[in-house]
Amino acid sequence: MKKPFVAKDQLEAIAAQYPTPFHIYDEAGIRENARRLKAAFAWNPGFREYFAVKATPTPAILKLLHEEGCGCDCSSLAELLMSEKCGIRGEDIMFSSNNTPAEEYQLADKLGAVINLDDITHVEFLEQSIGHIPEKVCCRYNPGGVFTLGETREGFQVMDNPGDAKYGMTRAQIADAYQMLKAKGTKEFGLHAFLASNTLSNEYFPSLAKVLFQLAVDLKEETGCHITFIDLSGGVGVPYLPDAPENDIAAIGEGVRKVYEEVLVPAGMGDVTLCCELGRFMLAPYGHLVTRAVHEKHIYKEYIGVDACACNLMRPAMYGSYHHITVCGKENEPCDHKYDVVGGLCENNDKFAIDRMLPKINRGDLLVIHDTGAHGFSMGYNYNGKLRSAELLLKEDGSVELIRRAETVKDYFSTLVW
């Protein structure tokens, strides 16, 4: 059973100062998780996590993770600027984007970021944009087809379709891109791929690593390029369902180590450093969306209306995603009421839960929506003139810090021309 990382009494006190809805993050949990990841890959000197800024683009979170040795994986101008303002520059930034404007490549180059090219045509475009080709460049690979992992010991099947994804280069293109880059002065090459999302299997990263490690060996032989790093990207998931299996990052790190020693070391590539760009794994379980029940409705179904909506957490409306809900103070009461928990948007998919069995909910009850620390606040929007919420950080000492104030109507109107 999922339990909130902050108790009801403290949440009520917080809500008295910062009205619901708000997102709150657990500093202690984030730091502990970052240290587990670092320990899992300590066998690879130079290993680095580039936190996927898109998941939680909040300076306090980026700074916290940077203190734990993490860099930033950026995909836009604003994310690059935010990283710079947080004091994160140079090779602490991986710039992985697609359909990239010239000015974004220019800023990435100015900051000294490692640039990860999404397409072979971007080699020439990058050179035109910044006036040269960097000495260190990464290329994104798309193997095409369908990636399957099959049944694992956790009983979870991984299946995704890279062939339908807009990202990355084909096998032939990436070899050509390496040759082009080498001819233009690149000395250090990186390799990157992302094959599946939110996997709940300790076998995913080792399976992906085997694909990339073998490709790296082949590319070295074909092109003579010096491949110095491999980016395993993201895709390590979190258990949104309360009874879903949880990934063991130590086992994942060990599985990658075995493949590294089987494939890279015999090929004389035992100096290759690894990195990843985890977002969901790093943050999702350590964030809650806290909202209050404001209405109840009894028609053909039973509805609980809350003061949050899909503008605060889009995933259930957009993907039909499950997010666990705790009714604060009623954790030990029977879940004997069936509700749709809904927001106030003029869209019928504005639902955090459908036919969810929960304890009796009364107006004024606080609800914690779990696992919103990644791709929660960051996907917010302003439909119906709804305003983005505050973000709070539960500090290790138990205090609470405001790390992003709530939007106001003045903010909403600030870009209008009357």
Describe what you observe in this structure:
The protein is α/β, with parallel strands linked by helices and 418 residues long. The protein contains twelve helices and 19 strands. It has two domains: 8-23 and 286-413, Lyase, Ornithine Decarboxylase, Chain A, domain 1; 27-284, Alanine racemase (TIM Barrel, Alpha-Beta Barrel), CATH 3.20.20. It has helices at residues 8-17, 27-40, 59-67, 77-85, 102-111, 121-130, 171-183, 204-223, 249-264, 280-283, 315-319, 409-413; strands spanning 22-26, 48-52, 71-74, 93-96, 114-117, 136-140, 147-150, 158-160, 188-192, 227-231, 273-276, 287-298, 302-306, 325-327, 337-342, 351-358, 366-369, 390-394, 400-404. Helix 2 (27-40) packs parallel to helix 9 (249-264) and helix 8 (204-223) runs parallel beside helix 9. The longest helix has 20 residues, at 204-223. The protein starts with 7 loop residues before the first helix and ends in a 5-residue tail after the last helix.
Summarize the structure.
This protein has 418 residues and is an alpha/beta fold. It is built from twelve helices and 19 strands.
